[in-house]
Amino acid sequence: MQLQIGDRLSDETGEWEVVNRPRTTAGGKVAHVRVRRVDQPALVEERTWGAHERIEGTRG
Length: 60
Known about the structure:
- The protein is an all-beta fold.
- The protein has one domain.
- It has strands at residues 8-11, 14-18, 23-25, 30-37, 44-50, 57-58.
- Strands 1, 2, 3, 4, 5 and 6 form a 6-stranded antiparallel beta sheet that branches.
- Strand 3 (23-25) and strand 4 form a beta hairpin.
- The mean pLDDT is 89.
């Protein structure tokens, strides 16, 4: 997983910005990333992906 702080991700719920470094669990197979909405900075979520999954985003 190559996500970095400041990267932006888009999905059906809006545009999100990575606010913390990704961390992995389960022996590096699951990645967790804390993101916040670009248009609502108070809205913060933790997203989880398989570490092997490809995620489309833009470098911030």
